[in-house]
């Protein structure tokens, strides 16, 4: 047998004649007689299950396999295993060398989120590890992903647990670089529901829409898990004629007539105004809340 030749196979994505392919490239050591290469493509479609999808014998230092949506689909993790042998006899072989797994599909960074009901925005990046093909001559060199959220505690009534900055994103065709061939970003914010309902779990789903290409039409990326941490909610009150209790528990009365700023946030555009009117008559100087406005 030949010793290990340090072939170092690597799987990368490419567009070949407008269709998505994966390329297995490896080092070709100088040798006499010249070497041939056996390239075995396999995929890990479910955890722990590996299946062979293609075998090539070539004199070149690379091999291609097409992602056609049937034998090789988005969502698969793909490997190539390379063995070198002499052209004269296939019995004299090198030790097989396997590439690292290449995940073909949509990736989210980070893969999961842990956020709190504090109004902060968290950036979520969506990447395609395969290039975007252009099936037509129109403005179709993109993949549109429809975004939605699902609260796993959906049996409870109330507002959603998370809010997204966009309902859909476009992944535009771009040169592949550092495991990314297209990308988009959005922000995720936990909704403050003013209820002590404990930590909640939601999921973000991205689905390709309007695709004629079988490769994308049959693909649904994995959901992003979002854990929302419940935070204690502050309360302030203005009631009866009117007695006021602030967020920090300070109590006072305001018997004046007019429009007043009851609460104003220093971190975001939020404020509450109240309007007070005379309700005591001639016997007492008393005002009552008669209107409220919030923004």
UniProtKB/TrEMBL annotation:
This protein's UniProt keywords: Disulfide bond, Signal
GO cellular component, one term: extracellular region
Gene name of the encoded protein: Vwde_1
Protein name: VWDE protein
GO MF entries: signaling receptor binding
Top-level division of the source organism's lineage: Eukaryota
UniProt cross-references to PROSITE patterns, sorted A to Z: VWFD (PS51233)
InterPro entries cross-referenced by the UniProt entry: Dev_Signal_Modulators, Ig_VWDE, VWF_type-D
């Amino acid at each position: 047998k030949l010793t290990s030749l340090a072939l170092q196979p690597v799987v990368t994505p490419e567009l070949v004649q407008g269709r998505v392919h994966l390329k297995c490239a490896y080092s070709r050591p100088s040798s006499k007689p010249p070497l041939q290469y056996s390239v075995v493509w396999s995929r890990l479609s479910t955890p722990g299950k590996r299946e062979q999808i293609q075998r090539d014998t070539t004199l070149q230092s690379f091999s291609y396999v097409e992602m056609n949506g049937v034998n090789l689909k988005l969502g698969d993790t793909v490997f190539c295993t390379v063995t070198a042998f002499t052209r004269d006899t296939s019995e004299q072989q090198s030790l097989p060398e396997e590439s690292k797994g290449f995940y073909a599909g949509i990736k989210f960074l980070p893969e999961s989120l842990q956020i709190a009901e504090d109004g902060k925005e968290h950036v979520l990046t969506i990447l395609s590890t395969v290039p975007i093909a252009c099936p037509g001559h129109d403005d179709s060199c993109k993949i549109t992903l429809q975004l939605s959220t699902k609260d796993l505690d959906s049996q409870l009534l109330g507002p959603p647990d998370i809010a997204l900055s966009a309902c859909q994103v476009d992944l535009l065709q771009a040169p592949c670089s550092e495991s990314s061939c297209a990308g988009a970003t959005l922000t995720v914010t936990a909704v403050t529901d003013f209820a002590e309902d404990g930590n909640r779990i939601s999921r973000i789903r991205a689905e390709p829409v309007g695709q004629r290409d079988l490769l994308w039409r049959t693909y649904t990326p994995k959901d992003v898990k979002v854990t929302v941490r419940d935070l204690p909610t502050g309360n302030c009150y203005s009631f009866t004629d009117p007695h006021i209790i602030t967020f920090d528990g300070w109590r006072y009365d305001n018997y004046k007539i007019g429009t007043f700023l009851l609460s104003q946030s220093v971190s975001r555009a939020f404020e509450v105004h109240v309007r007070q009117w005379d309700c005591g008559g001639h016997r007492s100087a008393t005002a009552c809340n008669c209107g409220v406005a919030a923004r």
